[in-house]
Amino acid sequence: MKRDKEETARRRQWVKRFMHSFADSRHWRNNTADIFSCSHSTIYSDIYILQVQEKYGNIRLYPTLAQRIYTKTRDKLTCQYCGIINPKNWALDHIICCLRGGVTEPYNMAFSCTSCNNKKGDFIWLPKNIQQLALENKEWAEKIEYLSRRESTKYIFPRIIK
User: Fold this and answer.
1) For residues 108 and 94, is the Cβ–Cβ distance under 8 A?
2) Are both 50 and 82 inside the same structural domain?
3) Secondary-structure percent of the chain, ordered helix, strand, coil, rounded to 5
4) Which of the pair, 132 or 56, is modelled with greater confidence?
5) What percent of the chain has a predicted confidence (pLDDT) above 70?
């Protein structure tokens, strides 16, 4: 475990050092993956994490166990976008993704099936329990309102229409 963390830290230092010069180069990413004996998607993930940290500081991208349990019970194991109850494959979704300034807090998390989570990507879809979430954090509700006015309607959806 300790060795894995050291290897990850070493790999991220390497990626951070050359990221701005070569991040768009497929050849560089492939060579880096070969050097560190990892997949190409790992290098993509490292680049993404480093870009987020560069833009927003050291933020937490993944919810803690307590946040996962709270969100699952609050949303009653129901996808907050399409309404499927207890989906086989599920994910906790950032309503406002980290790249758009979202935080990993329960009021910005929604229980969703992986299908909806993958379709959503980095768009902002409003979950079915948006009123409850707005009551949990007023500033976040104001941010959603601001983004919905600023962004075009292709980014903000009241919910998925199937």
Assistant:
1) yes
2) no
3) 55, 10, 35
4) 132
5) 83
